[in-house]
Write a structure and sequence with these properties.
The structure is a single chain. 42% of the residues lie in helices and 16% in strands. By secondary structure, it is α/β, with parallel strands linked by helices. The protein is globular and about 55 Å long. The two termini are 23 Å apart.
């Protein structure tokens, strides 16, 4: 079976494993206070052009989302997001478990707009019964979204403007951030996120790390006592140096292995972006095969997640050889599936899928 169902099927980048092995018997202080975590923090602040940012390493995406939102909200406040947002659909109610309602907004492409956010906030404060309802206080978006779409810098700037005007925190989930930054249409990079959001994270789990996410906090209001919550939410790793070492390896220029001509042309200077560009190139080959067959998409995008709409018979045929992720029913005879590439997707697997897509009788 060849797996295209998600972008974290593989373990970790070989360079990470090599550094973990080489430093295995070193003794360091725990809980992220070691020299490797400090090195990673310096690299991240430099790449974000945010020297005053707080940087924390958490064990996973759900823990990062829940901890950040818990830090931002009081008991009567909630988080606005797209109805398809990860915290609303795929985290088993982790945010609600802490007593904070997720306030879903309609979205056809995984994105929400500055106008939607403003309207939701204004509707709340102008409702005569406002104190009987959950108060919107944080806006959660992901880059890329659950449907692989991207916010432009202009869209992000408008959302940021509305959030600041209404006293809302803006939180950007970057679990797949490297794939977003590597996409051809992207114009949002780390310095933009540091400037326009209050808090965001750089995903490691899906981009070549064994596990872990790097949370970057730029708003001073959210910095205080954040480590207490990391510990309380089970997101603090005792052997914290394992996280710092992974992020310094992924983001540090000195750990970049041999780069391809395409990587150099794109300006990839670290393993994180090299992995992102690799996934996008692989995804684009699959898109080309789908386009050749005239296949349409549930939502079009140019990141590493592809959502083709296929006849159910074709999905069944492909599923004998490939593991794909079912997305949703489209009509009586067609469904949408998700095809994911990653930093480690093999060319021979892409070639095989493309050939089998071309052979489909549709």
């Amino acid at each position: 079976m060849i797996y295209f169902n998600c972008d974290y099927n593989e373990g970790a980048h070989p360079e990470i494993l090599a550094r973990l092995s080489a430093t295995n018997m070193e003794q360091t202080i725990g809980y992220g206070c070691d020299e490797y975590c400090e090195e990673a923090r310096r690299i991240i602040r430099r790449e974000c052009q945010a020297p005053d940012a707080d940087v924390h390493f958490l064990v996973g995406g759900t823990q990062a989302n829940a901890t950040i939102i818990l830090a931002a909200l009081r008991s009567y406040q909630g988080a606005l997001c797209a109805q398809s947002g990860h915290i609303n659909v795929h985290e088993t109610g982790a945010v609600e478990l802490d007593g904070h309602k997720v306030l879903g907004l309609p979205s056809a492409d995984g994105k929400i707009t500055a106008q939607q956010i403003d309207e939701a906030y204004q509707a709340h404060i102008h409702d005569a019964s406002f104190e009987h309802m959950v108060q919107p206080k944080l806006v959660y978006i992901s880059q890329p979204t659950e449907l692989g779409t991207l916010y432009t810098r202009a869209e992000l700037a408008e959302i940021s403007k509305v959030c600041r005007a209404n006293g809302l925190y803006l939180f950007v989930d970057g679990a797949r951030l490297g794939y977003g930054m590597a996409a051809d249409s992207n114009d949002v990079f780390l310095p933009d996120l540091a400037q326009l959001s209050d808090v965001f994270y750089i995903g490691g789990t899906k981009l070549g790390a064994l596990f872990g996410e790097a949370v970057v906090i730029t708003n001073d209001e959210l910095k205080k006592d954040f480590r207490y919550l990391i510990k309380q939410k089970g997101a603090m790793l005792a052997k914290g140096r394992l996280l710092g070492l992974q992020f310094s390896t992924l983001l540090g220029e000195k750990y970049m292995d041999v780069a391809s001509v395409a990587d150099i042309e794109k300006g990839a200077k670290n393993l994180y972006m090299k992995g992102g560009y690799h996934a996008i190139r692989q995804a684009n080959q699959i898109r080309e095969a789908l386009n050749h067959k005239g296949i349409t998409y549930l939502v079009a995008n140019d990141t590493n997640q592809i959502f083709p709409v296929l006849p159910d018979e074709a999905i069944q045929e492909l599923s004998e050889k490939y593991c794909l992720s079912y997305q949703e029913r489209v009509d009586e005879t067609h469904s949408a599936v998700r095809i994911c590439t990653s930093w480690a997707t093999k060319q021979e697997d892409v070639d095989a899928l493309c050939e089998d897509l071309r052979r489909l009788d549709i």
